Amino acid sequence: MTHWTRKDFLKASFAAGGAALLTRNRAFAIGQAGGSANGDVRIAVVGINSQGAGHMRDYLTGKLKGARLVAICDADEAVLNRRKADCEKEGGKVATYQDYRKLLENPDIDAVVCAPPNHWHSLMTIWALQAGKDVYIEKPLSHNIWEGRQVVEAVKKYSNRIAVAGTQNRSSNDIKQAIEIIRAGTLGKIQWARGLCYKPRDSIGRTPGPQPVPASVDYDLWTGPAPLTPSHRNGPRGPIHYDWHWFWNYGGGDISNQGIHQMDVARWMLGEPGLPPSVVSFGGRFGYQDDAETPNTLVSVFNYEKAPLIFEVRGLPMKAGMRAMDAYRGARVGVVVQCENGYVHVSEGGGAVIYDNDNKKIQTLAAGGNGAHRQNFVKALHERKVVNGSISDAHYSTALCHLGNISYLTGKEKANAAVAEAIQASEPTKEAFGRVLDHLKANNVDVDSTKTFLGPLLTVDAATETFTGEEKVIVAAANSCPIRKRVGRAPFVVPDFQKVT
User: Fold this and answer.
1) Alpha carbon distance 283, 314 (integer Å)
2) Cystine design at 388: which of 171, 332, 423, 463 (Cβ 3.0–4.6 Å)?
3) Are residue 203 and residue 320 in the same domain, yes or no?
């Protein structure tokens, strides 16, 4: 695989007569280099079983003006063939790849849109930049904090490339207007921000042991930088797809899966540019026993200096026997920012509504832009400037998800009375725990006999993105957690751009 340096790129640009690249006119440069006559950016979509299929269709059908689909890639050959057939039905002719590294060798691909499982996100982004490609990477940015930092450093190094994170709400003008209202002081001082992910998550069942991988899947490629271990899941989606979200080797549960969107909005609205001084989490996997590892109930509290950011995950329904989910002030997946004189509710889709403290609607914002993120990526490709969805912002918001999970993973099971005693000093945390217990009771969980994992209050060194403190055993466990740092396995090793320990 070719690794392009900035010097190599500029040299090649001059040799091809592509002076337009140096003046940031992407459309002209693509036309000169043999791309579409109308200057369309040539796009490849990677990871096309779920979210990536939506990206593929948008580029295939012409929904995203200024770009066109030229290639697709997936480690599952069955998925690849199915999506190729979908393209052909639309009259599209695309190159197909099972190995992402081979795709990157194709000089007729300008940019890659990547939507693989989480454990591939950072490495795919870095490899794309090294290969001279622009890149859109789906959320979350990383599987662990360290590799997310390497992506940030790679973007700095390959600064002639465009890199955008799939944090769609960053393109919402409604949220931007709500932030302006908060900053103006109209609602008074922020008291707290609460992110919510109440999504139904049924049991994935139990397996007797390692499950066979479908012949269509190159399991070594699918596993990539993660440790190569047998699959121990085989729910309705099979032994490979989607349910990897609930295993630490590949995902981080719903705080990383869905919650990264709401975490990003909450941090943005607080105006916090980086990581918090400390974090604590509590939760568990309640209501059933299955093969999955990540909690279906989790509360993480990030103790920012301005105001706390509280994140809540619930996978169980409102009560046993129902499909409907609980809601907090009418929100199931969203963000609530409480101020002195009212609060702002941001929906999953990026809409924003302002209420007073009596829950009376004051204003529904209608600035729009809530579905524009993918088109904004294409705009960034042509204008050579990232406005929405910076990699740096995505790193910090993704790292928050990891911090919450690390506190949980370094915690211990405790009786709920002991948990209540430990958190009583924090009113928002105590209130959240009380609602968790009520929710578990509604789902027939015996909270008197069932224990909850309570993580330690971890002190965060924001400069080094590590943990510090006097409790040496706990600090060592947190710093050695794979969700804090994992470098990958050969040949899928994440490059180290700054020698962070």
Assistant:
1) 10
2) 171
3) yes
* Confidence band for 94, pLDDT divided at 50, 70 and 90: very high
Q: Are residues 347 and 405 in the same domain?
A: yes
Range of the domain at 475: 172-370+390-493
Q: Which residues of 401-426 are buried (b: 16+ CB within 10 A; e: fewer)?
A: bbbbbbbbbbbeebebeebbebbeeb
The yes-or-no verdict on residue 37 having pLDDT over 90 is no
Under 8 Å between Cβ of 59 and 68:
yes
Contact 365, 177 (CB under 8 A): yes
* Span 376-405, pLDDT tens digits: 999 999 999 999 999 999 999 999 999 999
Other Cβ atoms closer than 10 A to 340: 12
User: How many independent structural domains does the chain possess?
Assistant: 2
- pLDDT tens, 172-203? 999 999 999 999 999 999 999 999 999 999 99
Distance CA 140, CA 121 (A): 8
Q: Among 170, 204, 234, which residue terminates a domain?
A: 170
Whether residues 157 and 191 share a domain: the answer is no
What is the bridge-based pairing of β-strands 309-314 and 190-198? parallel
* The predicted structure's pLDDT at residue 38: 63
Among 170, 194, 221, residue at a domain's last position: 170
Burial of 126 (0-12, 13-18, 19+ CB in 10 A): buried
Is residue 153 domain-shared with residue 180, that is, in the same domain? no
419-423 contacts, C-beta under 8 A, 24 or more apart? 419/282, 419/452, 419/454, 422/454, 423/280, 423/282, 423/454
User: Is residue 34 pLDDT above 80, yes or no?
Assistant: no
Whether 11 and 150 map to the same domain: the answer is yes
Please say if the pLDDT value at position 31 is more than 70: no
Residues 472 and 333 in one domain: yes
**β strands within 77-162, DSSP E:** 95-97, 111-114, 134-138
- At 249, list the tokens: 């080797």
CB atoms under 10 Å from CB of 289, counted, come to 10
Residue 232 is encoded by which pair of tokens? 């121990």
The reported pLDDT for the residue numbered 39 is 87
Residue 364 within a domain: yes
Do 400 and 258 have their domain in common?
yes
Residue 302 and residue 193 in contact, taking contact as beta carbons nearer than 8 Å: no
Distance (Å, whole) CA 20 – CA 27: 9
Residue 17 predicted with pLDDT over 90? no
Q: Tell me, what's the pLDDT at 75?
A: 98
Specify the 3-state DSSP secondary structure of 77. Answer: helix
Check: pTM over 0.85? Answer yes or no. Answer: yes
Give yes or no: residues 187 and 329 share one domain.
yes
Q: How far is 286 from 268, CA to CA, in rounded Å?
A: 31
247: which residues sit within 8 A by CB, 6+ positions away? 232, 233, 292, 293, 294
